[in-house]
UniProtKB/TrEMBL annotation:
Sorted UniProt keywords: Repeat
Family (UniProt): Belongs to the PPR family. P subfamily.
Entry protein name: Pentatricopeptide repeat-containing protein
Transmembrane segments: none
Pfam families: PPR (PF01535), PPR_3 (PF13812)
Gene3D superfamilies (alphabetical): Tetratricopeptide repeat domain
PANTHER family (alphabetical): OS04G0450200 PROTEIN, OS12G0527900 PROTEIN
Gene Ontology CC: mitochondrion
Keyword Repeat in record: yes
């Protein structure tokens, strides 16, 4: 399911994760550049993505490496030359350069600069004065997956000494399995992580929940939550969002409300959680999400609805986190997908922009909805949103929404 796959990609980019694993898949497959084989593509004539340097060139190690525009120009050679000139380099400096190189994925080139990044990792490995940390091994697993594929990452992991098969390395490989939708391998490694008792982190549980949502196995999400509680691992906002999203996509609204009650009673609840819970309440009320007994009868239509619900809850998550840029990115991706949006999707995006006080953007969404051929604009939907905002204690946002609709020559009505 394309929508569920995009949901997984966007979510992995957004959530707090194993710091050693950088997630770069942020856009729908239909919007990405065609991929090229990387086994022999490292010598491709197209240049690497690089950051632009100021007119006056800075002669430091980072600048030298970022000025390497062709894959055949080795970062290892640049490092050797740097050291050969009597200059020093530290492991922390190399790791920071690696981090910056990975971020350069935002440049739209045919090849990613990951190959150069991996060379730095290799250089650290060859030069014995740099002791590789657990995070370095995890970074290498992530890079090997991206550049040479999953088999190369697996072989590297299995070749590590037992002492190096740490939580960081295991979760990096788990992420690779989940990203490639290797369910059986991910499940086996997940069990191995639990058996080794190497961490009480929620990250592996979130990774498995994301995987199950991306492949449509929503029933397994609750199984992971049950195991998390049995292991006495504390859920975070991302855990709750995945859990709620899977229940909502299954149209199990009773469970959604039960989870919201559990969140409200969690002593770790903060302003982000409160914003998330408020927006979820608005979504349930204004979007008229109903139980499966009275839901759609057409199977293909029901699947589409489930996919769209995962988008909606991803938006709600980012609003809770105050991440306006991700809200903008997801809305842009939703507009570009071939599937028709529902009135519930529009209500979700409008309420999200209202929540973060982006009133101009909320008005633009209303305009998009009005001219949409896929879903008729109904003032009754806006009335429900107006009412839901007031009932949730957001009277100021409700008033702003009322003013916005008046500017568009619509008068909202309320039951109260």
């Amino acid at each position: 399911m394309a929508a569920a796959s995009l949901f997984a990609d966007l979510l992995r980019q957004a959530r707090p994760r194993n710091p050693s694993v950088t997630i770069l898949r942020a856009f729908p497959l239909s919007l990405r550049q065609p991929s090229r084989p990387l086994s022999s593509g490292l010598a491709n004539s197209q240049g690497l993505a690089v950051e632009e340097e100021p007119a006056a060139l800075v002669d430091d190690l980072r600048s030298r490496i970022f000025r390497l525009r062709l894959p055949k120009r080795s970062a290892m050679d640049a490092l050797d030359r740097w050291v050969g000139e009597g200059r020093t380099v530290t492991a922390s400096e190399l790791r920071e350069i690696t981090k910056d190189l990975r971020k350069s994925k935002r440049f739209k080139h045919a090849l990613e600069p990951i190959c150069t990044d991996d060379m730095i990792s290799e250089w650290m490995k060859v030069h014995q004065e740099f002791e590789l940390s657990d995070k370095d091994y995890a970074t290498r697993i992530d890079l090997l997956t991206k550049v040479f594929g999953l088999i190369a990452a697996e072989e590297f992991f299995e070749g590590l000494p037992s002492s190096a098969k740490s939580y960081e390395a295991c979760t990096a490989l788990l992420h690779s399995y989940a990203a490639k939708k290797q369910i059986e391998k991910a499940e086996n490694l997940f069990d191995r992580i639990k058996e080794l008792n190497i961490s009480s982190s929620v990250f592996p549980y979130n990774e498995m929940m994301t995987l199950y949502i991306s492949v449509g196995q929503l029933d397994k999400v609750t199984v992971v939550v049950d195991e998390l509680k049995r292991q006495k691992v504390s859920p975070d906002l991302f855990t709750y969002n995945l859990w709620i999203s899977s229940c909502a996509a299954s149209l199990d609204i009773i469970s959604v409300r039960r989870i919201l009650d559990e969140m409200a009673q969690d002593p770790r609840s903060d302003k982000q959680w409160i914003a998330y819970m408020r927006l979820t309440d608005i979504y349930l009320a204004a979007g008229q999400l109903e139980s499966s007994q009275s839901s759609l009868s057409e199977v293909d239509k029901q699947i589409s609805q489930r996919e769209w619900i995962t988008y909606d809850f991803l938006i709600i998550l980012h609003v809770g986190l105050g991440n306006i840029q991700m809200l903008n990115d997801i809305w842009k991706s939703m507009k570009m997908t071939k599937q028709k949006m529902t009135s519930r999707n529009y209500i979700c995006v409008i309420s999200s922009y209202l929540m973060v006080e982006q009133f101009k953007e909320a008005g633009e969404v209303i305009d998009e909805w009005k001219k949409s051929k896929g879903q008729e604009f109904h003032i009754s939907d806006c009335n429900r949103l107006f009412e839901a905002l007031k009932k949730t204690g957001l009277s100021d946002k409700a008033e702003k929404f009322h003013e916005l609709m008046l500017q568009k020559d619509y008068e909202l009505t309320s039951d109260s």
